[in-house]
Amino acid sequence: MTHTPVGWHVELEFKEEDDQHTRAAALVRLPDGSEVRAHGRASRHQVDANQPRVGEEIAGARALNELAMRLLSKAHEEIDTASGRTSHPIHV
């Protein structure tokens, strides 16, 4: 069987709300045309050094983690719909 390579493009956008809070928005467009979105947030403690890149990494990781969980839920719904039964949870 020949497989056609499929790619997913994930977009991450960041917004610094102020010098202590960073938000991230994640979006993946799937080959069927659907989109899955998720968000993450990071807060810097006032005694920590201001490192915007670290805030982006934390907020981005949290957004991607939420995105992964949403994709797992979407997959479960599709399995259940196709099989007519309730599937077992997919554990991360």
From TrEMBL:
InterPro entries: Rv2632c-like, Rv2632c-like_sf. Pfam families: Rv2632c-like. This is DUF1876 domain-containing protein. It comes from Streptomyces achromogenes. Residues 32-53 are annotated as: Disordered. It comes from the Bacteria.
